[in-house]
Amino acid sequence: MVAPEQQGDPETMVLPDGRTLAYATHGREGGVPLVFHHGIPGSSLLGSLLDTAAREQGVRVIAPSRPGYGASDPHDTTLKTWATDCAALADHLSLDSFAVAGFSGGGPFALAVAERSDRVAGVGLVGAIVPESDGGLLETLSRVPPALGAAFRASEWIARVRSPEFVLRQFTVESVDRETKNTVYRDFRTALDGRPAGAVRETSLFTDGWPQPDPDAPIHAWHGVADENVRIDPVRTAYADRSNALLSELDTDHLGALLTVREALVDLAAPGSENERADGRT
User: Fold this and answer.
1) How many Cα atoms are found within 13 Å in the side-chain-facing hemisphere of 131?
2) Is residue 170 part of a domain?
3) Containing domain of residue 90, as a range?
4) Confidence label for 137 from pLDDT (cuts 50, 70 and 90)
5) Which residues contact 104 (CB under 8 A, 6 or more apart)?
6) 177: helix, coil or strand?
7) Which of 114, 82, 111 is nearest to 97 (CA)?
8) Share of the chain above pLDDT 90, in %
9) What is the CATH number of the domain that holds 255?
10) How many other β-carbons are positioned within 10 Å of the β-carbon of residue 245?
11) Is residue 206 in a domain?
12) Which residues of 11-35 are buried (b: 16+ CB within 10 A; e: fewer)?
């Protein structure tokens, strides 16, 4: 393990098959653990958006960069292989019990970890994709991986020469502070910097239908009714008949939902506090 200079700096571990997995920790050092899954594309940097709420509530946010993002080695990732990688991370950090959370494209990965582990106490999903989600242009391009890779490389180049505002507007029309804007920008750049392998693999993974993991652990999903990245109608359908799932609808959009429920999300890891914010208010 490479020791970080401070909370939030990247660390790495070596997985059993020799690959490098990068992760960062945010919030309260030594706090109750929450493993946070970034979107597509994304990196461990996005977990810093939960830092203040986690510090206040005694939660340690562990945010891995999945294979092919940031300093994590590329891999032919599936939901099953990620659950195995995350279990190795939990072992590395000596986590006996933890909650998981997933934002956007990170949602299915959080569910997969919960489905395959008896250590997961609860699942939080924010703006998460479901099998019926409309992937739009990226879904079409995913059928031709070189074209999809070119699209992501072009997006990263445009982001590099444009302002952070350009990246932010792909996720929200809400007004945010400078720190949040810069975090989203850096997360996007880090995810795609020099190699879009993770984004290409994961986008292709969620094409032509896919089996949504169905863990026994309780699920709380929050979703913005104005979300243009992942529209809410298929999300309502996906959770309508799940007895262990609660869907809270929010009057905001994609990133806006994550910013709105930060306190409620980290509450998943804090025993006894989730019910106090079951409606998603902060």
Assistant:
1) 11
2) no
3) 11-134+211-274
4) very low
5) 39, 40, 42, 126, 127, 128, 129, 229, 230, 254
6) coil
7) 114
8) 70
9) 3.40.50.1820
10) 17
11) no
12) bbbebeeeeebbbbbbbbeebbbbb
pTM, entire model: 0.89
Q: Would you say residue 236 has pLDDT above 60?
A: yes
H-assigned helices in 93-193? 107-115, 136-141, 145-161, 164-168, 178-192
C-alpha span between 42 and 251 (Å, rounded): 24
Q: What pLDDT score does 213 carry?
A: 95
* DSSP code, position 119: T
* Residue 52 in domain: yes
pLDDT surpassing 60 at residue 281: no
Return the amino acid letter for 27.
G
> Which residues are within 8 A (CB) of 233 and not within 5 positions of it... i.e. 6 or more apart?
none
CA–CA distance, 255 with 236 (Å, rounded to integer): 18
Lookup result for tokens 């031709």: 144
Residue 48, judged by CB atoms within 10 A of its CB (0-12, 13-18, 19+), counts as buried
Residue 207's pLDDT band (cuts 50, 70, 90): confident
Residue 199 domain flag: no
Tokens 């930060």 belong to 262
User: What total of structural domains would you count in the chain?
Assistant: 1
Counting every residue written for the chain, the total comes to 282
Name the H helices within the chain: 51-56, 79-92, 107-115, 136-141, 145-161, 164-168, 178-192, 197-205, 232-239, 254-260, 262-266
49: phi then psi, degrees, rounded to nearest 5: -65, -20
In angstroms, how far is the first alpha carbon of the chain from the final one?
Answer: 35
Residue pointed to by tokens 């609808």: 249
Please say whether the beta carbons of 118 and 95 come within 8 A.
no
d(CA 275, CA 267): 9
Whether pLDDT at 5 is above 50: no
